[in-house]
Specification:
Elements lengths: L5 E2 L2 E6 L2 H11 L4 E4 L3 E5 L4 E6 L7 E5 L2 H10 L3 E6 L4 E5 L5 E6 L4
Parallel strand pairs: 2-5, 6-9
Antiparallel strand pairs: 1-6, 3-4, 4-5, 7-8, 8-9
């Protein structure tokens, strides 16, 4: 069975300088805030939504949506990708490919 991947329009970054980053994207660049929670703020920046989260920096994370996350992750790991972080309570499943791109694998229809 094939698992079609398609990109969402979400990109997430993490930083320990969260308040400064939120101010930069919201005030300096003037991006409208579209989501706010205790540790994450989302901005509509035009072609995509940028989420700024408190925490250890890991570079930009893109998101691919699939019908079956478990099957997709198995396929990716078999193809040489590395599972970087997984937290089903978020839900979050970060995978890094052999070429350096990190992305979240999310369930289609839920993001």
């Amino acid at each position: 069975m094939t698992t079609p991947f398609r990109a969402s329009r979400d990109i997430i970054i993490r930083t320990h300088n969260w308040a400064e980053a939120v101010s930069f994207y919201g005030s300096t660049l003037g991006f409208p805030e579209v989501y706010r929670a205790e540790n994450i703020v989302g901005f509509d920046v035009g072609a995509f939504r940028l989420y700024v989260e408190k925490g250890e920096a890991h570079g930009p994370v893109f998101e691919y949506l699939v019908p079956d996350v478990e099957q997709a992750v198995q396929k990716l790991v078999a193809a040489g990708c590395t599972l970087v972080e997984e937290d089903v309570s978020v839900p979050r499943c970060y995978v890094r490919d052999a070429y350096g791109m990190t992305f979240n694998v999310g369930k289609a229809g839920t993001s």
